[in-house]
Design brief:
0% strand; globular; mainly alpha
Length: 328
């Protein structure tokens, strides 16, 4: 039979003693930490290898950002143009020679008011006359040809006040001297005049001056309301650019200011000159409206002319010189 033990260990007890004191590779108390550290290091190595071999898929917005950064020529010009447009329309305009544009507004007021009065017997700019018509309405007997004419004057006054409230609030919120604010105000006035002319041109409102004989046709209130609303934008604009001597829609106070001016006969008096020119601009506009009405017998033609002039004023504000600020 084979021996159960190795002969060396039996023959030499010292060797057996020394062998018992040596660390055996299978001794659990000694080799477990080593095995644990070995397994830990192998796991770390495996994780590093897995990270190297892993392909991370970026989020869609990463691709979008990368694409925009790789192609700056496609996005930067558009962003630059938008930024330049914002700076351009946010800039404040110069008020030098702005009185020329508001003198054109005075001509528009005379042109439109003479036409609307000829057609409907009311004003859309001169609210002093409308106030008188409103006061006379209560005393007008019902057997007269137009006992309800005061209703149009009331609508005109109400819409003018609403326009003043709207345009002034917009001016305060957006900045009264900003190019974009003034251009937007006059563009809206232009569109309102064009819309009114289109309504009359389309036949929704009777535009033939020879056939307007009804006392009150409620469709005729629509042009009165729209034109009264837009005319408020003119006086709000004149106050915004500090040209209070050119209200563009009133004559009584302007005549007062002309003849109570201490420098009435002075050689150089800019405000007096503006007031005198504004008076004649309104007068010439009214005369022109009368001749156009008599020649065409239609009320839409003066409205198209007024809208074209106001469109020119709007474009002038778009290219108007910027306000110069002096460095301190």
């Amino acid at each position: 039979m084979l021996p159960l033990h190795h002969p060396e260990k039996i023959m030499d007890p010292s060797l057996a003693k020394e062998t018992s004191t040596e660390t055996s590779p299978w001794d659990k108390s000694v080799d477990l930490p080593r095995l644990e550290s070995t397994s830990r290091s192998s796991k770390e190595t495996a994780s590093q290898l897995s990270r190297k071999n892993t392909f991370e898929v970026p989020a869609p917005e990463t691709y979008a950002g990368r694409a925009s950064s790789e192609r700056p020529e496609a996005s930067k010009p558009a962003q630059t143009l938008l930024r330049r447009s914002q700076l351009y329309f946010n800039a404040e305009v110069s008020t030098a020679h702005a009185d020329i544009l508001f003198l054109c507004c005075c001509f528009i007021s005379g042109l439109v008011d003479s036409t609307i009065y000829h057609a409907f017997g009311t004003f859309v700019s001169m609210q002093t006359g409308n106030t008188i018509f409103l006061g006379l309405g209560g005393a007008t007997p019902h057997n007269t040809p137009k006992p309800y004419g005061w209703a149009k004057s009331l609508v005109s006054i109400a819409c003018f006040c609403l326009g003043c409230l709207t345009f002034s609030h917009m001016t305060r919120c957006l900045g009264k001297l900003r190019r974009g604010t003034i251009a937007l105000s006059f563009l809206s006035q232009t569109l309102i005049i064009f819309i009114t002319a289109a309504i009359v041109q389309g036949g929704k409102v009777n535009g033939s001056l020879d056939t307007i004989t009804d006392d009150i046709d409620w469709w005729t209130v629509l042009p009165v309301a729209l034109l009264s609303f837009q005319s408020a934008g003119q006086i709000v604009g004149s106050r915004a650019v500090n040209l209070s001597e050119l209200p563009t829609v009133v004559l009584t106070s302007m005549l007062h200011d002309i003849f109570t001016d201490e420098k009435l006969l002075a050689k150089a008096n800019v405000k007096r000159n503006r007031r005198v020119l504004a008076f004649f601009a309104i007068l010439i506009g009214a005369i022109a409206g009368g001749f156009i009405d008599e020649g065409s017998r239609r009320m839409q033609l003066p409205l198209w002319i007024a809208g074209g002039i106001k469109l020119g004023i709007t474009l002038a504000w778009v290219v108007w010189p910027e306000k110069q600020t002096s460095a301190v």
